[in-house]
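User: Quick one: structure for sequence A, then sequence B.

Assistant: Sequence A:
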Amino acid sequence: MKLATTAILLIFCVLNAASAATPSKCHITFRTAVNESPPLYFNAEPGKKAEGVTIDIINELKIRTGCNFNITPMNRSKTSQMLEYSQIDLAIIETRNQIFDKYARFIPVKTAHREFIVKQSEISSDTTPEQLLKDPKYKFLTLPRYRMFFKPDEQEKLDQENRFVTGPTVAQLFEKLKTGKNLVLVFHPVVSYYLKDSPEFKRLQDKENSFEIGAYYIPRRGQEKGIELISQALLNLVKDGTWAKIMEKQRP
């Protein structure tokens, strides 16, 4: 009888240990904003599901965390408003910026060097990002209010010199870049999507300055475990190479 009891206790302990080793799932539905610009998000065609880099990332998060995501594509101005009034829970994938920092907490996932995109015909072979910033003839394309790829001193200088040119979407910024003169777009690696079949542009990597990519969330009681799982899953996506594979699949 003692032997049987001991065996039962041993089995119970093993099961408990196995259960403890398995990460718990969150079973929470997060209201999630995704940047509406390709390749991060492509509008769904009739009878098909939405696609894009962010959708692939979120699908991985569903598998790895058990969380659910109610996705709404929107521009950055709308995302800012939704974060300010706590009308969403998450914003994925986002570049860290001072405006969003006012309303939400940031989950840092990785860093990336910024890139300066300019027509090859408008620069010399040895032009540097620093020279583009200093030369008043070059103007910089940006979304309204969102200058997250510029340092504070750069923003102040370019503002004083009236060197910012705005556009409502990333796609429209690229159209301005193609048709305008002495225009520069400062962006990050997803710029590859827009530069395919565009040999007239040169990409100058700024190896001295980088920025953070990740997600924003609104802290809420009862969602702490879910946010913890999402944060760890995002870091694991980078660590195991899944993030890089998804980025490489940018749709032409």
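Sequence B:
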Amino acid sequence: MNKENVYIVLLLVVGIVVLSNLAMFALVRGSRHLPFDWFKRGDTFTQSFKGQDPSLNELRQRVQSLEREQRAKAGQDE
């Protein structure tokens, strides 16, 4: 194997790693003042519950009452 090729490949790999780390560092430092609160603003996890059909309220209430009855029954069995 040619040693010159090994050194060139090694130099390229180290260069790519160092340059990519520097680029990510610059990206993070440059975006310090940008608002990244998309977890707080993003209501995607609860959006399906907010936009539910009003006809499902009766079903939700029945499920809640069944859960209460089941918890009460489990408390009596103990």
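Residues 68 and 74 are 10 Å apart (CA to CA). The longest helix spans residues 3-30.

User: Thanks, that's what I needed.
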